[in-house]
Amino acid sequence: MLTMLTKIKNKICQRLASVIFPNALRVKLLQFSGIKIGKNVYIGTGFTFIGSLCEKQQQLYIGDRVSIAPNVTIVTESHPNNSKLRKYNVEKSGKVEIKHDAWIGTGAIIIPGVTIYEFSIVGAGAVVTRDVPPYTIVGGVPAKIIKKIEVRK
Q: Is residue 100 annotated as part of the catalytic site, yes or no?
């Protein structure tokens, strides 16, 4: 279990990363906060990660050469906080994986338990509620398949 000091460090790094300008520094801050990020990744300003980072289970994985546009939100844990709804077990949590060479459009929201497979595109403003197959473009609320990407050989 993470110590309180580690949790505070992670939150500070994530908040700084959402507003810091150079991408390389933004990625380093997010890595320092415990998020696993591959090589040559671009993460736009306003990136928001909602969830907890536990040492035993990686909740967010971002693969190599992924491009995440500004104002994207990734959620790995959600619950109604102090509401009496909590007694109805409506909490949602799950790992989010973004595989290599994926592109996430501006303002997209990715909910818990979703995998975005390699060479996929998530359209701007999409709410991704289920896995996105490889070589696929999705968009809308909730996100639906728009088309398959033709693989050139």
A: no
